[in-house]
Amino acid sequence: xxxxxVATEGSIARITLNRPDKRNALNADLLLRLRAEFRTLSAxxxxxxxxxxxxxxxxxxxxxxxYLQNVSKYSAMENLADSQLLQETFHEIYSCSKPVIxxxxxxxxxxxxxxxxVCDYVVASESAKFGYSEVKIGFIxxxxxxxxxxxxxxxxxxRLLLSAETISAQEAFRLGLAxxxxxxxxxxxxxxxxxxxxxxxxxxxxxxxKEMLVNLHGMSLEAGxxxxxxxxxxxxxxxxxKAGIAxxxxx
Length: 251
What we know:
Layout: E1 4-9, E2 12-17, H1 28-42, E3 49-54, H2 65-71, H3 76-94, E4 100-104, E5 107-109, H4 111-117, E6 121-125, E7 129-131, H5 142-152, H6 154-163, E8 166-168, H7 169-175, E9 180-182, H8 187-199, H9 203-215, H10 221-235, H11 239-250
Parallel strand pairs: 2-3, 3-4, 4-6, 5-7, 6-9
Antiparallel strand pairs: 1-2, 7-8
Helix pairs in contact: 1-3, 4-5, 5-6
C-alpha cells in the first residue's frame, strides 16, 4: 500500500496521508515522502495550491509506535539525523511557495498537530481534536514549538505545550491554531471553494507574499521596512504584476 497519494487537478494538488490502519502516524518513510513531494510541488509551475489531507478516521495521530520504539534505541547521531528529517519536512511545508491547506478531521495529535500547524490554512471539521501530547511521555515538542510561537503567541503556546491537553476544533479556531472550523458535512465543499479561490490569484504574488511571511519574523522594524520596500519594488517588475496592472487599467 502506498503511504502517500498525490493527485493534481488543474492548478490544485492534493497530498493524502494513507496509513489509515495506523491513524496516519508519522515515521521516517512518510516524512521522507512528504519532504520530497512538497519540494517537487513547490517547484511545479502548474500548481498554485496544495491541499494536505488524510484517509481514515484521523488526520495524524503523531509518531508511529514502532518508530518511537526504534528511536529510543538510536545513538545520539542517529537521533540528531532523525530530528533533522522532521525539521526539514516541516520547514519544506512551511516555506513552500504555494499556499498549503490542511484538511483536518478526527485527531491531529503531537506530530500530527505539528503537521497541521506548519500549513498556511488549517480547515478543521467541528469534530476534530488537536493536542501537543509530547510531555506526557517524557518527550518535548521542540520543532513545532518554533512554528507554534509564531502562529499563536507565547501565552497560548505555553498553555498547549505544557498541559498536553486535547482541545476541540472550536477552541483551536478561537486560539488561532485553526483558520476555519466548519461542520463535518461541509468540510470538503469548503476546502474545494477555498482552494479554487486561491487558485485565481497570481502564483508569483502568493509565492513572494509567503516568502515575506517567513522572513519578516525576527526582523527589526527598520530592517522589515527596508525589506518590504525592496520586495515592493521587485514585485512591480514581475510579469504577473505588469499584466495585472494593464488589465486593471483597461477595465
